[in-house]
Design goal:
The chain is of the alpha/beta class. It folds into three domains: 310 residues, Alpha-Beta Barrel (TIM Barrel); 96 residues, no CATH class; 118 residues, Jelly Rolls (Sandwich), CATH 2.60.120. The protein has nine helices and 41 strands. The strands form ten sheets. Strands 6-7-8-9-10-11-12-14 form an eight-stranded parallel β-barrel. A six-stranded antiparallel β-sheet has the order 17-18-19-23-24-27, covered by helices on one side.
Amino acid sequence: MREHRLRVHVPPPDGGRLMGDARIAAHPRWVEVDGAPAVPVVAGMDYSRVPAALWQDSLRRIREGGATAVATTVFWNHHEPVRGEPDFTGGLDLAGFARLARASGLGLVLRLGPQARTGARHTGLPDWLLALPVAARTDDPGYLAEVVRWFAAVSAQLVGFPLLAVQFDSAAGEPGHLSTLKVVTRQVGLDAPLWLLTGGAADGFLPAGAALPDAYWVSAGTERYATDAFGFTAPNGTSPYLVAELGAGMVPSAHRRPYLGARDIAALALSRLGAGSSWQGYAQFQDGRNPRPGLQESHAAGAPSDLAELDSDAGAPLAVDGHRRASWYRLRLQHLLLAAWGDRLATMAPTLPDEPDPRWAVRSDGRSGFLFVTNRPSGPRRAGLQQARFVVETAAGEVAFPPVDVPPAAAFAWPFGLVVGDAELEWATAQPVTELVWRARPLLVLAATAGVEPRLRWRSGEPRELTTKGAGHFGELVTERGVAVRWLVLSEPDAWRFGLPDGLELTSDGVRDQASRRASTPVVGSSVVGHAGSPPAPRTGPMGRTGVPADWGTAARVELRLPSAPGASLVLDWVGDAARLWDGERLVADSLWTGRDWRIPASDLLGATDLVAEFVRLHPDAVVHLTHGRPRGARLNHARLEYP
């Protein structure tokens, strides 16, 4: 047995409000929502990259996933390709998106730009702007005049919509220029309680950080972008630790194609919570695609990275069509914990160990709290921890968790000193999910940590088994006054689905699975009309980085015949370097191979009559970082229709 011990850091007194209003405010160590401490969960969904027909369902799933707000980017070059002619119609209807977000119960965080980055051509600035005799990203009067005009157009779309925050990117300019941007934004009528700045510092802004385990913009020769991403580290400062750019996925470029698994994404988010995060903001919670060709970061536009023309598939928790990936379910467990106990966790200070291994941390108020562990890889895969005994020293005494074998890849948050009703849970080796009232008594729902026996120790009373119908393990604590509290331990997969319309439902006599099967869809017809020939020679751009293939003459070609299945996405399992889907001469979708299925929303296929998919091989000399190894050949393995 190996003991790991921490003496918790007692939080200092609150220093008062730094910024905000009665709806949302930032204090030195936490965020306050409607007058109470909270940890907001902010899901990134860029409206102009998601078909408008899917906005409502996507926002509903974002809310079901536990998010409290949505952050959306306003891409200047999406809206105003021609100077003086901004377009806010159809899939660019910012006001319509804001209405749906509000109706979904989500707050709105505006990533205003004018520089947006996120894989955009010229970081989101229109081509015509860069052709003007002005110095972009500075206080040049000519540049500011264009920015003010653009911001005024955005402001006119959001009249009457209360924003939670406006978020700028430090790459938009020097600190003085960023302060100017804030001034002109407010002058045109756009304002918010909080002003966030990612990646830097400037007067009038709260600094917000990023947490990315990998990135498409680094060299193909870099094994891993951020080797310490899963450890518990946090900046020291006089403002709350705000994580506005959590990497819940990563868009691929031609030369580097990270593949972040669901366990990686969940462990990354949990590591930030354990390190003291007061704001869980996901850079991209839903994937997307550009509304038209020519809007991507590319070699042709002078960028060192070359991206697919339309595709923006980062492997995020929600795919572009709203399909829920495994990371959506895993993150939902954390978000449910924040919904139930975020008011307590928000004010708990983090205590981080001096040694980097094992990766664990504690957040505590001096008596109660949560133990965080992320046994995730840094380079080579980490082994499990054998007979690890975690001991937390608090002002109320020592909390000693039982020795456990922590499996490889495990990531969890275990409670101690948790008050549930009139009872106190000394510790549990399972992660809290939510607290309900069931059979007229408090019910604590927990998720078992895979590979670890779920055990609970209450400070007083007699625990006993409780026989009920349904999945999961029920128990109850009996004191001299009767039943004090009950608990339900679910497996991780069952806990992911707990409380969803198509998941597990708690009834008066137990747990019921209410999942319903959707009728199967007809088979997609396909005909190979051309096999792949030799791969095109590698094409390189700035910094010698590999680019998207330009020669498609040797691509494999497959004709597709779609049966009638309204609302169903086309899902392609394919192999190759790159792929494109055409409807006649219209480019419907494209993709760079990462190992994920390629999903095309039904709304992008409306009216398609002549679908042809083409797949090009990867040249053996192309310098490309691929998490899942190099693909062999170029072909379509399988095509299917699937309801997201």
